[in-house]
Design a protein that fits this description.
Strand 3, helix 5 and strand 4 form a beta-alpha-beta unit. By secondary structure, the protein is α/β, with parallel strands linked by helices. It is rod-shaped. Helices cover 60% and strands 7% of the residues. Helix 13 packs across helix 16 and helix 17 crosses helix 18. It starts with a strand and ends with a helix.
Length: 588
C-alpha cells in the first residue's frame, strides 16, 4: 500500500486523528494475541528455557558451516531475549516500532517530525545516530520499564507519542561503525513492527532487502517510508518499489512516500508526515496494536522452529565431528603404544646410566662380583647381604630415572603423533580446533609428573614381585615336562634362602628390575640365584613396565580427550534443543 504526502495510505483508513495520547488498552490475554488457548506462563517458561539453552550452546570446533551457525545462534538469542521474552512477560506493553534503514535515509528527521520536536539528533555528518533513541508516552513508562532494550537506548518520554506504541530510532544498517551495525540488527529483533526508511536514490540497495527478507521469514509486521522522492520520478520509483515489495512477499505492507523538499533543516512540514502520523495513531489503538503485536508474535514463534532445528543440526554436526576426531585419535595411539612397548622389551630402559651402573656393580671388585662362585655356590652372610643392598641402591635410582625418561619420551612422541593426526593433510574436520585448545605447557608438566610417578611405582613393585616369586612353591617339573625329584625341589628352596641372605629383598629386587629393563647379565645372575623364581619375577616386572607405557600413552590421549569432553560436543547435546522445541510446538 502506498501513500503520497498529505494523503492516507491506499488501504481503508480511519479518519485522521491528532497525535495525542490514547487511553491505555486493556491487558492482552495470550489467547487473544496467539489466537488459540494457551497458558501464558507455560509459553513464557518454555521460551525462557529455550533462550537459556541457546545462550549456553557453543561451537568449539571450526567445521564447515560454523560461521553461519554462530550467526544463527546470535540472531536466535537476540530474537528470544529482545522480543519474545519481554513481549510474553508483558503482553500489554506498547508495540515497539523500530525505525530503521540505510545511512542518510532520514530516519532521525522522520522520528522528530512525527513527534513534533527534536528527540533524536539529525544532521549531515555520518553516522548521526550513535546511541539509539526510544520515544514513548509518559503513561507507558511503567509497562516498558523492564524491557531489555532500555539498557542500550536513550529513553525520551513525550506526550505527543500515542499510548500503545514506542518509536525506536535505530542506527544505520550499513553504518561505518561495526558497533552501530550490530546494534541496528539487534534492535530489529526487538520490534513488534519494522518501519523501514529508504530514499529514491537508495531503495535498490541490497542490504535493506536482505534484512527485509529476514523479517518476512520471521513473520514480522513491516511498513516502509520512501523518502526524498523527486515529483517527476514519483510514478516510476513508486511502481518499481511496489514490484520489489511484491517480489519479497511484502505486497500487503503499507508504503508511505515523502517528497524531496530540497536542502532544509529541522522538522518536515506537518502535512508531509500527516499520513504516517494518522497511521501510527490508528496503530496505537488497543485492538489494532494487539493485532500487530499478535501477528508479529505468532510469526516469531513460528520462525523459531526452523531456526532451532537448524541450530540443533549444527550442534549435532559438532558432536559428529567430535566422534570422528576421537576415532582418529584412538587409532593414532595404537602405533606409539606398540612401538614403545617393543623398545621396552628390547632393553631401551637399560641403555645409558643403568648399564654403566651395572658394569660397575658386577665387576670382580664390585658388590655383585663373586656372589655366585664358579662352583655355583652362593657366597654371603646376612650381614654381607645388608651391605650389598646399600651398595646396590643407586642402581634402583638409575632405573627409576631411566624409566621416567623413557615414559616421558613416550608421552612426547605420542603428543607429536596425535597432533599430526589432528592437523595433518588427512586430519579430521575440526581437528585444528582441538589441537589449538590442547595446552602444551600444562600437558608437559602433567606428563613429567605422571611419568615420574609411574616409574617410582614400577621400581617400588620390585620387592613385592620378588617376594611373591620366592614364596611360590618350586615347580615339580621343568618347562619341557621333565619331573623333578623332591631333593631337587628342596635344594631350590634352600638356594632361595641363601640368595636372600646374600642380597636381601631389596638387592634381589634391584637385580630383577635391571633384568626387566634389559640387562641380560642381571637376568642370568638372578636365575643363578633363585632359578625359575627369577624368571617369573623378571617377566612380571617387564610386563608391568610395558603396561605403564600404555598408561602413559593413555595420559596423552586423555589430555586431548578433555577438549572433546566439552558438553557442546556430547552425543546428546542437540537433544536438549530438540526437547525445548518439542515443548514449544506443543504450546503453540
Amino acid at each position: 500500500m502506498s501513500a503520497q504526502p498529505g494523503t492516507a495510505p491506499v488501504q481503508p483508513v480511519q479518519t485522521a486523528q491528532p497525535l495525542a495520547p490514547h487511553a491505555r488498552h486493556a491487558a492482552s490475554d495470550p489467547r487473544d494475541v496467539l489466537a488459540r488457548p494457551l497458558a501464558a506462563t507455560s509459553l513464557l517458561d518454555a521460551v525462557r528455557d529455550l533462550r537459556r539453552d541457546v545462550e549456553r550452546t557453543g561451537f568449539p570446533l571450526e567445521i564447515e558451516g560454523i560461521t553461519s551457525a554462530r550467526a544463527s545462534r546470535a540472531r536466535l538469542v537476540d530474537q528470544l531475549g529482545e522480543h519474545l521474552v519481554p513481549r510474553l512477560t508483558e503482553l500489554s506493553a506498547p508495540a515497539v516500532v523500530v525505525v530503521s534503514g540505510s545511512t542518510g535515509a532520514g530516519k532521525s528527521t522522520l522520528v522528530n517530525s512525527l513527534v513534533g520536536t527534536e528527540v533524536s539528533t539529525a544532521g549531515v555528518l555520518r553516522p548521526t545516530t550513535r546511541r539509539p533513541v526510544l520515544v514513548h508516552n509518559p503513561l507507558d513508562a511503567e509497562l516498558l520499564s523492564h524491557h531489555p532494550v532500555l539498557e542500550s537506548v536513550s529513553v525520551v518520554a513525550d506526550e505527543n507519542v500515542p499510548r500503545g506504541i514506542a518509536l525506536l530510532d535505530a542506527p544505520d544498517l550499513d553504518s561505518v561503525l561495526e558497533s552501530n551495525r550490530e546494534s541496528a540488527h539487534r534492535l530489529l529483533e526487538a520490534a513488534d513492527l519494522w518501519l523501514f526508511v529508504t530514499t529514491a536514490a537508495r531503495y535498490g540497495d541490497a542490504l535493506p532487502w536482505r534484512v527485509l527478507q529476514g523479517a518476512v521469514e520471521r513473520g514480522a509486521s513491516i511498513a516502509m517510508v520512501l523518502n526524498r522522492v523527486p515529483p517527476a520520478s514519483l510514478p516510476t520509483v513508486r511502481g518499481d518499489l511496489l514490484d520489489r515489495l511484491r517480489g519479497h512477499g511484502l505486497q500487503g505492507s503499507p508504503l508511505f512516500v515523502v517528497p524531496d523538499l530540497g536542502p532544509h533543516e529541522g522538522l518536515l512540514p506537518a502535512t508531509v508526515v500527516a499520513p504516517i502520523r494518522r497511521w501510527l495513531a490508528m496503530l496505537a489503538g488497543p485492538d489494532r496494536a494487539r493485532t500487530v503485536i499478535g501477528r508479529t508474535l505468532r510469526g516469531s514463534l513460528a520462525a523459531l522452529r526452523p531456526w532451532v532445528d537448524e541450530l540443533a543440526e549444527a550442534v549435532q554436526a559438532q558432536a559428529d565431528a567430535a566422534s570422528a576426531i576421537a576415532a582418529v585419535l584412538d587409532e593414532a595411539v595404537v602405533g606409539p603404544t606398540a612401538q614403545v612397548s617393543a623398545s621396552i622389551r628390547g632393553g631401551a630402559v637399560a641403555d645409558g646410566a643403568v648399564r654403566a651402573r651395572w658394569a660397575e656393580l658386577a665387576a670382580d671388585s664390585g658388590p655383585l662380583g663373586g656372589v655366585v662362585r664358579p662352583s655355583g655356590r652362593i657366597r654371603g652372610s646376612a650381614r654381607e647381604g645388608r651391605a650389598r643392598t646399600t651398595a646396590i641402591e643407586p642402581l634402583t635410582e638409575d632405573l627409576t630415572r631411566s624409566a621416567a625418561a623413557t615414559l616421558t619420551a613416550a608421552g612426547a612422541q605420542t603428543e607429536e603423533v596425535l597432533r599430526a593426526a589432528l592437523t595433518g593433510p588427512d586430519g579430521p574436520e575440526g581437528g585444528a580446533s582441538v589441537d589449538a585448545a590442547w595446552t602444551s605447557a600444562t600437558l608437559r608438566t602433567g606428563r613429567r609428573s605422571a611419568a615420574e610417578q609411574a616409574a617410582r611405582a614400577w621400581t617400588a613393585q620390585g620387592p613385592r614381585v620378588v617376594r611373591a616369586a620366592l614364596t611360590q612353591a618350586p615347580a615339580e617339573s621343568t618347562p619341557d615336562g621333565v619331573s623333578r625329584g623332591r631333593r631337587e625341589v628342596t635344594r631350590e628352596v634352600r638356594r632361595r634362602r641363601k640368595a636372600e641372605n646374600a642380597l636381601g629383598d631389596q638387592g634381589l629386587a634391584a637385580v630383577a628390575l635391571a633384568a626387566a629393563a634389559g640387562v641380560r647379565e642381571a637376568r642370568d645372575l638372578l636365575v643363578d640365584l633363585i632359578d625359575t623364581a627369577g624368571e617369573r619375577a623378571v617377566d612380571e616386572l617387564r610386563d608391568d613396565l610395558v603396561a605403564r607405557v600404555a598408561g602413559q600413552v593413555a595420559v596423552e590421549r586423555s589430555a586431548v580427550g578433555e577438549v572433546l569432553a566439552d558438553p557442546d560436543l556430547a552425543e546428546d547435546a542437540a537433544s536438549r534443543l530438540r526437547l525445548r522445541l518439542a515443548v514449544l510446538k506443543g504450546l503453540t
